[in-house]
Amino acid sequence: MFHISRALYRELAGDLTSDRDREHVLRACEATVQRLVSDRFYFAHPARTLFADVRWRFPLHAQTRVFEVIDRHLAALRAELESSVGATLELTGKPLRCRATTRRSVPCNHEPNPRTGYCSWHRHLADDRVAAAA
User: Fold this and answer.
1) What angle do CA 10, 59, 21 make, to 5 degrees?
2) Phi and psi (nearest 5°) for 101?
3) For residue 132, pLDDT beyond 70
4) Given its phi and psi angles, is residue 49 left (phi above 0), alpha (psi -120 to 50 degrees) or beta?
């Protein structure tokens, strides 16, 4: 997972001048990628969140490029995560499980559709927009 955040950081680091700025941007990239991988169904706008966290570290003339780089990297990561259940397993070491709970209030252990996060038994809980696209 760190190779993804480091690739994002390396592309952004050229515009940074101080070591404090570099450290902050690196930590922010790592935290955002970690949250996107582990909690992507509840992380609505990761690119905007990361950009809001790091934008004041960059000069004004570079901010458009910074947002485009962040958006491109995080959109590619989200697409990779939504393409297969194995992508989450590769990045976290834990298999993706259904987001629903059973009638006995225990987490469902079935393998979900990577796009919606719900298994076939709980697919009715998926957001209509996401389910229609799947």
Assistant:
1) 50
2) -115, 155
3) no
4) alpha
Q: How far is 46 from 38, CA to CA, in rounded Å?
A: 12
- Give the H/E segment covering residue 52: helix 46-54
| DSSP per-residue codes, 61-125 | GGHHHHHHHHHHHHHHHHHHHHH-HHHHHHHHSS----S-B-TTSSB--SPPPTTTS--TTSGGG
Token reading at 107: 């987490």
**What is the average pLDDT across 73-89?**
82
> What Cα–Cα distance (Å) separates residue 109 from each residue in 1, 61, 106, 128?
24, 49, 9, 22
126: which DSSP letter? Answer: S
Provide the whole-model pTM.
0.76
CB-count burial class (<10 Å; 0-12, 13-18, 19+) for 43: middle
